[in-house]
Amino acid sequence: MTHNMERVNGLGALTEDRLKMLIREANAAKAQAYSPYSHFRVGSALLTRDNRIFTGCNVENACYNLGQCAERNTIAKAVSEGYKSFRAIVISSDLSEKFISPCGGCRQFMREFGLDWEVYLTKTDGSSLRMTVAELLPVSFGPEDLAMKKLTLQNDS
């Protein structure tokens, strides 16, 4: 069952039916994962504020650091189609004993698009844990920090 069903950004948490559908979409995306090295499949389903759904999976590479996580693939797919405002992302893997959790890089990538949208961590039994981006990446650095006043350095020459 889903935990933390309080309202987020006035939209409210996802309904059980919507969440189950997004978990199915994330699992379908996971089936497309290209993970010949780690054998760790991950899929995700992203819901935009206007209810458009994007999916993605992890894609590994023989040059390990060039691999791409499912969450970043999914968000990049949405952004490339003109979407930058998200309501929720569901992440699925083959883990059965604990909820899949996004890596630090994916947390920062999600943060780029706000703090108050939902992230659903799942297990293979269909259960989920709802968090927000803010809960996953507390005391974070984001786009608004670039506009803050900074110390002006003097040129010593």
Automatic annotation (TrEMBL):
UniProt domain CMP/dCMP-type deaminase: residue ranges: 17-144
Broadest EC class assigned to this enzyme: hydrolase
Cofactor entry: Zn(2+)
Protein residues bound to Zn(2+): C69, C103, C106
Coiled-coil stretches: none
A matching Pfam family: dCMP_cyt_deam_1
Highest taxon in the source lineage: Eukaryota
Single biological process term from Gene Ontology: pyrimidine-containing compound metabolic process
EC number: 3.5.4.5
Binding-site residues, substrate: N58, V59, E60, N61, A62, C63, Y64
Full protein name: Cytidine deaminase
